[in-house]
Amino acid sequence: MDWLSTPLQYAFMQTGCLAAVLVGVTCATLGVHVVVRRLAFMGDALAHAVLPGLVLASLGGWDLTAGALVAGTVTALGIGWLARRQVLADDTAIGILFTSMLALGILLASLKRSFRDFSHVLFGNLLGVSWGDLLVIAVVTVLVLSVLLVLHKELELTAVDPLYAA
């Protein structure tokens, strides 16, 4: 059993494992509600559609999180607008904006003169999690689980019978 505990002697392995557990619990709990509402593709779309915001924030020297938040919000609002106007089906609107934003992000990243590997931002690097990152992950985990606990009945009701819930 020494082979199992030996890697945990290193700080980067401890933070990486703890981050994986926290994110796993959060995503599993939240994922149930996402899948029941048939919005699984929306999560993937938003995760990749933040790339233009990341690149623009990097070019402007701004906070990357703020750039990602703006790009994600614009994408979510665009998907909602297209779906609400019934111009396109929900899945089609998600697919179009997802690929468009990702393509725009790749185009902007290729135009940037100084190289920065945005794949680490898009896909993450679990072994690169710092204690500060871990603190943010823990706070988000507590917030998400608290909101889900408080709104559990309402979320279940809207998932099962949206007309009655309204």
Q: How would you sum up this structure in a few lines?
A:
The protein has 166 residues and is mostly helical. Helices cover 79% and strands 0% of the residues.
Task: Please specify the SSE layout and strand pairing.
Layout: H1 2-5, H2 11-36, H3 40-49, H4 51-60, H5 64-84, H6 90-111, H7 119-123, H8 131-150, H9 152-160, H10 162-165
Strand content: under 5%
Unreliable spans are none
C-alpha-based Rg, rounded: 19 Å
Mean pLDDT over the residues: 86
In words, what does this structure look like?
- It contains 10 helices and no strands.
- It has one domain (21-165).
- α3 runs parallel beside α6.
- The protein has helices at 2-5, 11-36, 40-49, 51-60, 64-84, 90-111, 119-123, 131-150, 152-160, 162-165.
- It is an all-alpha fold and 166 residues long.
- One of its GO terms (cellular component) is ATP-binding cassette (ABC) transporter complex.
- It is a multi-pass membrane protein.
- The chain crosses the membrane at residues 12-32, 39-58, 64-82, 94-111, 131-151.
- Belongs to the ABC-3 integral membrane protein family.
- It comes from Tectimicrobiota bacterium.
